Amino acid sequence: MSDTGRGDLLLEVRNLQVHFYLFEGVVQAVNDVSFDVHRGRTLGIIGESGSGKSVSAQSVMGIVPSPPAKQLAGEIRLHRATPDGGIETVDLGRLDPRGQEYRDVRGGEIGMIFQEPMTSFSPLHTVGDQIGEAILLHIPDSTPQSARERTVDLLRRVGIPRPDRAVDAYPHELSGGMRQRAMIAMALSCDPALLIADEPTTALDVTIEAQILELIQELQDDLNMAIIYISHDLAVVGGVADEVMVMYLGLVMEHADAETIFDEPLHPYTRALWQSIPKIDGPLEQLVPISGNIPNPFAVHKGCPFYARCTERIQGVCDESPPPVLEPRQGHTVRCFLYADDVDLASNGAAGD
Amino acid sequence: MADVMQTTSGANGAAAGELLQVEGLSKYFPITKGFLRRVIGFTKAVHDVSFTLANGETLGVVGESGCGKTTLGRTILQLYDMTAGSVRINLDEGQLDVGSLTPEERKLFRRRAQMIFQDPFASLNPRMNILETVGEPLLVNGVAKGTELEQRVARIIEQVGLRVEHLRRYPHSFSGGQRQRIGIARALVVNPRLVIADEPVSALDVSIQAQILNLLQELQGEFHLTYMFVSHDMSVIRYICDRIAVMYAGRLVELGPKDELLERPRHPYTALLLAAVPRTAKGSRGKRLVTAGEPPDPANLPTGCVFQERCVHVQDICREEDPPQVSMSDRHFAACHFAKDLNLDGITVAPVTLSA
Ligand SMILES: Nc1ncnc2c1ncn2[C@@H]1O[C@H](COP(=O)(O)OP(=O)(O)OP(=O)(O)O)[C@@H](O)[C@H]1O
Ligand SMILES: Nc1ncnc2c1ncn2[C@@H]1O[C@H](COP(=O)(O)OP(=O)(O)OP(=O)(O)O)[C@@H](O)[C@H]1O
Ligand code: SF4
Ligand SMILES: [Mg+2]
Ligand SMILES: [Mg+2]
């Protein structure tokens, strides 16, 4: 981490827009998503099901299935280290997702772990063979022998007991927690600069989740890795993230450092979400459900997509045009009319980004 | 057994106001090997569990995956045959010994004890509309049919927050939260006294969980329900329950009134579980304790205390003798040799969480 507390800029995503063209209609999965990721820092992404968290992450990885998906707009720039110690910028959006160069980025500069370890592992091969293959593919001059040694090393590092035996185990022979550790080992096999963790602990018990999160944070400290941590669990994100992005229906509703998001949230959706979850140490009477249902993903919204469920909505304003992205405080952005001054309202909120 | 139903609730030592008495309940699953399916051992999914449920209370059952929560619920409801022990329920119609029901008693028990399942997607038949889905238990149990059935279904559908226009619709056109409401309506339409809810909000989105939790609480008052609420989520349990039962490797390791158990846990496992939940309050946000280890294999348990391998307070006696159930009060006990001696940390409730 640099002296300023913010690591060096590693990834820039600007105005990303990804839609799915399905038989039933168009899903605007990601509509206008921008964020930066810094080395050694963790960006948390929260939001309910279908808000576009995974598609945003998959876009960075170049693994959104296309068709049916189409990236309509946006830039994804990776500032990666070169062998001679310099930095070069790759525009990932310009690369062929199936091409060799992108494949080198995946499993090279960027590693990813998923909620379900079985999506990373094939049930037919041993854990060791699969991690070893990734190493052979990405690390120059590696041999089957060195790859196996490195694999055992990685398994030990992620806290798997008896790694020299676990290396020959099939995924189903490991417990859920151990499989998750093995998947982390695989994601780390090529020393990624960025780790994308998409709900990596959602299927695990709290005690095991605490172990996995501690492991990820230790590895981050050791490797100065950047992390994008996706979860619907606000308490978990509160524990791991430096900054937090709140998504709703393909849009970033609010973005600020973690302290601010939880202590002084501005967006009505962030506040509602926080008040609706049971907390282990909060006063019991504060649980207030968010009314209504998660909207239909095919719906197109003229105004704010949260309008129907918002307790602070301004009729005739919020339902008429898309809310602007405002920055009421330095480094704290919010997509909501409540923070527009009269000038913006008069110009009908069109003063977007 | 062809016992006639007993007409006095309060028989068999049931204290007034008690709905359910579970005594020494065990459920073992055989582990088989080879083509002949020779039994080579047992998974002791639930072992020697005893507790009572008071009328109108909510007992939370919490613990890590595989500790036996679902098996306990299903064995109480006779969806699994019990291996040992007894379950008695005190109904207005009399007391039933659930382990040996006559066919007639079984019918009554099926109506008075209901289950709500975790996965609202998997638990509904996609080819049955809402009227058929919710009406089915009425029909099967011979409670109502025709217009009376339709009226009862319509009433319950409104009580769970759905609309009568929805009656002819099929499950696929409902969201997860709405489907869970349908599951709740189906459980409640036969007027149960005991409802065992197995992870009823775990599959729901965070923003919908609170709606369903509040609904379950409202309905409890309206229908005089007694809940056994199974969850792995301590925060949810804390919100909805009066008492909490903590399970570990098939055993009930602690049971007590909510506040008492959360503020001053008596079993080291309860303390470990509480410490692992991330805190949310300003100043301690995200804080949690990390402890090594995983629960033991329920097919291969150590002698003595099942928690010994992860316990930081372990002594020789723990490796030799099963811990007794130590009573802290008549409603709070912990199965630990040192339950009375240890000073364990629990949850400190923050005064205010939201400033804005
Ligand atoms: N492969 C796909 N084909 C069609 N639609 C998709 C696909 N992947 C995602 N979508 C749709 O895009 C939207 C955003 O999905 P995404 O998976 O990013 O949500 P999410 O925020 O990760 O939700 P969750 O919390 O459920 O994982 C959803 O409406 C989803 O149905
Ligand atoms: N039908 C079954 N046949 C054999 N073993 C079973 C069966 N059901 C459960 N078990 C075993 O019994 C033990 C307890 O399982 P159970 O499903 O009751 O746990 P749980 O606490 O509900 O876990 P979870 O939180 O994952 O739902 C586990 O070891 C499980 O593998
Ligand atoms: S823009 Fe309006 S409707 Fe949307 S969150 Fe803000 S106040 Fe609510
Ligand atoms: Mg997702
Ligand atoms: Mg279960």
Structural write-up:
The complex is a heterodimer of chains A (353) and B (356). Chain A is α/β, with parallel strands linked by helices and 353 residues long. Chain A has helices at residues 53-61, 100-105, 127-138, 144-157, 163-166, 176-187, 206-223, 234-240, 258-263, 268-276, 342-346; strands at residues 9-22, 25-38, 42-46, 69-81, 87-91, 110-113, 194-198, 226-230, 243-248, 251-257, 325-329, 332-335. Chain A starts with 8 loop residues before the first strand and ends in a 7-residue tail after the last helix. Chain A is 29% helix and 25% strand. In chain A, the strands form two sheets. Chain A has an eight-stranded mixed beta sheet with strand order 6-7-8-3-9-10-12-11, with helices on both faces. Chain B is α/β, with parallel strands linked by helices. Helix content of chain B is 28%, strand content 24%. Chain B has helices spanning 69-76, 103-112, 130-140, 146-159, 176-188, 206-223, 234-240, 258-263, 268-276, 316-320, and strands spanning 18-33, 38-54, 58-62, 84-91, 94-97, 113-116, 194-198, 226-231, 243-248, 251-257, 326-329, 332-334. In chain B, a hairpin with a 4-residue loop joins β1 and β2. The radius of gyration of chain B is 21 Å and the shape is globular. The relative contact order of chain B is 0.13. At the A-B interface, α7, α8, α9 and α10 of A face α5, α6, α7 and α9 of B.
